[in-house]
């Protein structure tokens, strides 16, 4: 059946197929426009009546009939047609007819318009592959090992004789032909599923020494009925079909060229006795535009042709009028990348136009640089999902993948900062112009202070330049930074990893943060294994980062960035501090990454390995003095080695020398070739960039980030066991010391104050270094997709959990050795509220300072005032009272005492109004004593009056006796005098009392103020981080 189908297709192909030639305009107002020509004999020139491709009269150097293209014997040929200024192909003037090939650049006259051949139809017989010249038999794709070694060294898995034969005819089964091995090899696709990779368990096992871009499990070819599809298995360097990186299962057509990573093993898919239905680029023609049709040119069109992935019409959607996009196979447009959610977005078309909706994806959907939830679309909108660009078409959507072909164009980057040592400004970058082709390894050289780090930060969007623009595949980086952040990797000088974690844990949490939230554990394991293999860290997987060498730690930092498989990787002095041997290994790793289909741009002082770069940038005082291959730099500067470069440049602090070198380079052939000519292809300079606006995380994504960050931070804290022992040991020690210091008869003020102060101290000291110590990690993750609220929230969650243990130990031990009245279920929550206020204080300190040492120095300045103004002995008065209102220790201390009074049955020694206030125990006693004295005075006066009255009566009686005689009166006996009252004194045992309560507080107010302080400190921390935000 298959053979019959092949013959039928072959006959159809040969009988009715139309030859097609696809060209792209590279210059002029039509730059980026594509034209499909079906004529087999036509002219190019200015005469519209004779020329199939016609140029305007103002086009320089174009004759009326300039060149002729013909289809001859299965080959497209081009010849000059007697033009005045000649016809050039790939820079060489034609002396006669020459064949055209894909990628050939046709130029009409010197300095005239240029076209590039994007696709051409070859003759059927030209694509029929001859038998192996060495006579090797066909190998079945069952355990075939392509190690590149000699036959006696190869460990081949043989198959039964004749396995590749069907109906007695050789090669009736489709097969793969290895094109770049040591010897030609053919592997019959006799199994329904054929895997390709370097692992020996693959059906086709490739030698990683011969093909370094191959992954363990790289790709799989699967048969579905009569068709064959190839699918990438999440490989690091990707799988390419006909030069295009695939993002979903891709149909293999006869003659298709399969590439296992850029520059890797190359196979041709062959269906025996069938001509190729598709040329290597036929399926990927981006625009079928006639020569008469005009389109507005945008810079990104120059790279679309090479980045094309697929095109889907709305009528092809499972739901008519809708096209779903996602990682899952059931989507209409499947993009097999872990940054893409399973159901990511949906395009819809109705009578009013197009709409796009984000289906709650993790990494978002961006339209013109802004993250959207749902919006109406225009035909000119730039739509990005991860590294994929989408272009609206009248009947559907075209998809382009930027990962393996990220071109960078730089226009007039200028950056100035205020002069610290005088007036005016200092120019760090001066009109930098560059054009960096895709997949190149570029080094930035220059003396110290030349502006290398400033330039690399401007190129990656970390610190945008005030003037000028950076284009990535023709799209403004600064205006679209949020959608490009997933395609850009950045490794700063400092390590961007937690040393407490193992290598595997480090990469795992990076994957959880940056990949789609619906990524499975198996998918994460696969990408981690791949990245570890690429960076040579597979054997160090379980080793803590702190135990790695300097070079290995740098590899981990690189691995962190490779998790998302970025198209561009920036590195700032990645080899600083490494020994020469390690430095060379790291440089070769970068070179390998670049060869695998990534653009790698790095700053370095090391000159020894300059030969590894494709191009080097030389800066002096922020000015471009060279851009081009390092070998040409030697001739340009007249030096024998790159090591002599800095000496040749002269005084690195001389602006005059720098300007002279800059002007010389701008007038050189190298500048025209490597800078000016590539930038001219863009035809028009894009408008100046606007300051990027950061998009906001959704609530659900914020919660996800908080959970991931909390889990990672918890692992970091748990890994430092000695520190945890110290933290948990502080609490019981302080409680025991307090018990030893406080007398049994003392009032409870001191124990309560120690509780309040300690929990705040714990929180502040625990948190004071937690942000600043990982500033480089925060900065890098913030560039990608880190939210400030989840980041600070994760710190708060973990530190609160640690603090709860500390608070529980402190309170428990203190309650055991010292009386702290109050219900534990009420005291502990109040202590925790005070503790989180302390944490918020510490996090604010950590956000404000530049180093951990500064944070350590600031902690006492914040905590000692808590003692001075906390009101330990007496209520604060005057200015001190106002200062105490901003001291959380005072409010916490007051709250604990009020709990003791209300719930613990404690008394208050000193009333609100002072010692004479009867609301306090002292005032009550004073009042009671005074009352007793007053009563005694009254009793004494009454006694005196009674005695006086009796004496007066006795006197009268005695006088009467003396006058009249009679019975002599008796002397009255004195009454018992009133007893003096007992005077009470304040109790010597004050253990059931607190000294005082504030005159303005209440338990509810104390709690409210503490919560307000926490929210204020938390908000200020985020505000500080936002103000320091590299993109804010």
From TrEMBL:
InterPro entries: AAA+_ATPase (IPR003593), ABC2_TM (IPR013525), ABC_transporter-like_ATP-bd (IPR003439), ABC_transporter-like_CS (IPR017871), ABCG_transporters (IPR050352), FHA_dom (IPR000253), P-loop_NTPase (IPR027417), SMAD_FHA_dom_sf (IPR008984). SMART domains: AAA, FHA. Residues 926-964 form a coiled coil. GO terms for molecular function: ABC-type transporter activity; ATP binding; ATP hydrolysis activity. It is found in: Membrane. Residues 970-984 have a biased composition (Basic and acidic residues). Pfam families: ABC2_membrane, ABC_tran, FHA. It comes from the Bacteria. SUPFAM superfamilies: P-loop containing nucleoside triphosphate hydrolases (SSF52540), SMAD/FHA domain (SSF49879). One of its GO terms (cellular component) is membrane. Residues 408-646 form the ABC transporter domain. The chain crosses the membrane at residues 722-744, 788-814, 826-848, 855-874, 1003-1025. PROSITE patterns: ABC_TRANSPORTER_1, ABC_TRANSPORTER_2, FHA_DOMAIN. It is a multi-pass membrane protein. Residues 278-297, 965-984 are annotated as: Disordered. Residues 42-94, 194-246, 323-372 form the FHA domain. Keywords: ATP-binding, Coiled coil, Membrane, Nucleotide-binding, Transmembrane, Transmembrane helix, Transport. PANTHER family: ABC TRANSPORTER G FAMILY MEMBER 28, PROTEIN SCARLET. This is ABC transporter ATP-binding protein. It comes from Chloracidobacterium thermophilum.
């Amino acid at each position: 059946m298959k053979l019959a189908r092949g013959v039928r297709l072959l006959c159809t192909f040969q009988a009715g197929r139309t030859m097609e030639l696809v060209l792209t305009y590279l210059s002029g107002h039509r730059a980026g426009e594509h034209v499909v020509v079906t004529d087999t004999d036509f002219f190019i020139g200015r005469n519209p009546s004779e020329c199939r491709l016609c140029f305007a009269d103002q086009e320089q150097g174009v004759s009326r009939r300039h060149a002729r293209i013909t289809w001859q014997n299965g080959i497209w040929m081009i010849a000059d047609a007697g033009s005045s200024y000649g016809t050039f192909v790939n820079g060489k003037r034609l002396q006669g007819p020459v064949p055209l090939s894909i990628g050939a650049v046709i130029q009409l006259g010197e300095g005239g318009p240029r076209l590039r051949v994007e696709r051409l139809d070859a003759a059927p017989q030209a694509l029929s592959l001859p038998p192996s010249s060495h006579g090797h038999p066909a190998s079945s794709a069952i355990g075939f090992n392509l190690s590149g070694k000699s036959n006696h060294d190869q460990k081949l898995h043989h198959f039964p004789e004749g396995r590749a034969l069907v109906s007695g005819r050789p090669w009736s089964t489709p097969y793969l032909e290895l094109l770049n091995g040591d010897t030609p090899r053919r592997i019959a696709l006799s199994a329904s599923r054929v895997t390709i990779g370097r692992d020996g368990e693959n059906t086709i096992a490739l030698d990683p020494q011969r093909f370094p871009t191959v992954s363990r499990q790289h790709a799989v070819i699967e048969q579905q009925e009569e068709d064959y599809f190839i699918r990438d298995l999440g490989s690091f360097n990707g799988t390419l079909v006909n030069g295009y990186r695939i993002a979903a299962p891709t149909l293999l057509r006869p003659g298709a060229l399969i590439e296992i990573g850029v520059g890797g093993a190359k196979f041709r898919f062959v269906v025996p006795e069938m001509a190729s239905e598709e040329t290597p680029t036929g399926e990927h023609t981006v625009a079928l535009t006639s020569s008469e049709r005009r389109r507005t040119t945008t810079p990104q069109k120059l790279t679309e042709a090479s980045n094309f992935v697929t095109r889907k019409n709305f009528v092809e959607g499972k739901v008519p009028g809708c096209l779903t996009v996602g990682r899952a196979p059931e989507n209409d447009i499947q993009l097999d990348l872990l940054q893409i959610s399973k159901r990511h977005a949906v395009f819809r078309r109705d009578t009013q136009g197009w709409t796009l909706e984000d289906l709650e994806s993790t990494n978002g959907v961006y339209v013109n640089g802004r993250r959207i939830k749902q919006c109406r679309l225009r035909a000119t909108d730039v739509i990005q999902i991860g590294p994929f660009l989408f272009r609206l078409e009248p009947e559907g959507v075209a998809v382009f993948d930027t990962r393996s072909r990220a071109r960078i164009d730089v226009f007039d980057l200028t950056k100035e900062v205020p002069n610290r040592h005088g007036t005016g400004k200092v120019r760090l970058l001066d009109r930098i112009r560059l054009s960096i082709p895709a997949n190149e390894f570029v080094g930035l050289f220059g003396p110290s202070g030349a502006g290398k780090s400033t330039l690399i930060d401007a190129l990656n969007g970390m610190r945008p330049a005030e003037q000028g623009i950076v284009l990535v595949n023709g799209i403004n980086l600064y205006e679209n930074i949020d959608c490009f952040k997933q395609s850009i990797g950045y490794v700063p000088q400092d390590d961007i990893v937690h040393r407490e974690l193992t290598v595997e844990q480090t990469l795992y949490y990076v994957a959880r943060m940056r990949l789609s939230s619906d990524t499975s554990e198996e998918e994460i394991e696969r990408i981690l294994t791949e990245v570890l293999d690429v960076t040579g860290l597979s054997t160090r997987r379980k080793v803590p980062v702190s135990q790695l060498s300097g070079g290995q730690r740098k590899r981990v930092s690189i691995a962190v960035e490779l998790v998302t498989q970025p198209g561009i990787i920036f590195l700032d002095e990645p080899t600083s501090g490494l020994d020469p041997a390690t430095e060379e290994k790291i440089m070769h790793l970068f070179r390998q990454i670049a060869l695998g289909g990534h653009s790698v741009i790095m700053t370095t002082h090391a000159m020894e390995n300059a030969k590894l770069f494709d191009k080097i940038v030389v800066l002096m005082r922020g000015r471009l003095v060279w851009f081009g291959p390092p070998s040409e730099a030697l001739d340009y500067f007249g030096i024998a080695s790159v090591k002599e470069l800095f000496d040749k440049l002269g005084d690195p602090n001389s602006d005059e020398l720098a300007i002279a070198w800059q002007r010389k380079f701008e007038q050189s052939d190298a500048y025209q070739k490597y800078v000016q000519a590539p930038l001219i292809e863009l035809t028009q300079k894009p408008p100046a960039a606007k300051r990027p606006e950061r998009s906001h995380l959704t609530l659900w994504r914020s919660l996800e980030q908080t959970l991931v960050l909390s889990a990672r931070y918890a692992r970091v804290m748990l890994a430092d066991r000695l520190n945890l022992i110290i933290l948990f040991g502080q609490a019981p020690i302080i409680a025991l010391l307090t018990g030893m210091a406080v007398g049994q008869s003392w009032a409870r003020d001191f124990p309560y104050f120690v509780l309040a102060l300690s929990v705040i101290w714990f929180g502040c000291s625990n948190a004071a270094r937690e942000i600043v110590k990982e500033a480089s990690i925060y900065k890098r993750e913030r560039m990608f997709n880190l939210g400030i609220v989840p980041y600070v929230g994760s710190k708060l969650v973990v530190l609160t959990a640690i603090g709860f243990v500390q608070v529980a130990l402190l309170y428990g031990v203190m309650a055991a050795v010292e009386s702290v009245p109050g219900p534990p279920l009420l005291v502990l929550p109040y202590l925790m509220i005070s503790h989180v206020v302390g944490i918020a204080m510490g996090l604010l300190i950590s956000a404000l300072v530049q180093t951990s040492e500064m944070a350590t120095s600031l902690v006492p300045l914040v905590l000692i005032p808590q003692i001075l103004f906390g009101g330990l002995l007496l209520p604060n008065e005057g200015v001190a009272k106002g200062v105490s209102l901003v001291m959380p220790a005072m409010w916490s201390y007051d709250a604990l005492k009020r709990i003791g009074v209300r719930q613990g049955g404690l008394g208050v020694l000193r009333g609100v109004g002072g010692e004479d206030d009867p609301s306090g125990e002292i005032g009550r006693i004073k009042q009671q004593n005074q009352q007793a004295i007053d009563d005694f005075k009254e009793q004494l006066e009454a006694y005196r009056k009674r005695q006086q009255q009796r004496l007066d009566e006795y006197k009268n009686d005695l006088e009467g006796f003396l006058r009249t005689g009679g019975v002599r009166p008796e002397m009255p006996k004195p009454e018992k005098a009133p007893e003096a009252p007992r005077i009470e004194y304040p109790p010597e045992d004050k253990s059931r009392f607190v000294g005082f309560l504030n005159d303005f507080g209440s338990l509810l107010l104390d709690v409210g103020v503490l919560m307000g302080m926490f929210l204020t400190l938390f908000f200020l921390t985020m505000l500080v981080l936002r103000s320091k935000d590299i993109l804010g």
